[in-house]
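Thread: "does anyone have the structure for this chain?"

Original post by V.I.:
We have the sequence but no experimental structure in hand. Need at least a predicted one for the grant figures.
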Amino acid sequence: MRKFITELVGKRVMTDDGLFLGRIDDFVMESNSGALVYLLLNTEGREMEMFKTDEKGRVVIPYRGIQSVRDVVVVNTD
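Reply from O.Q.:
Generated one for you, tokens below.
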């Protein structure tokens, strides 16, 4: 399945065990290949100390962790 990045911005992101992490705010891409590397999530003000964050406080999730994309994006955080 192919999706435009613009379709993913704002989607809710949950872990595979049901924890709501936030909404997709932005992405990090590899400049040479154009491959997606990370999702950056807006946590809507909630503290997410167990996850890596960027300088703006957004949760950083590896793109390879995406398990499915439907009404919500499900990620594996292991």
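V.I.: this helps a lot. The mean pLDDT is 89.
O.Q.: and The beta strands are 12-15, 20-29, 36-42, 59-62, 66-69, 72-75.
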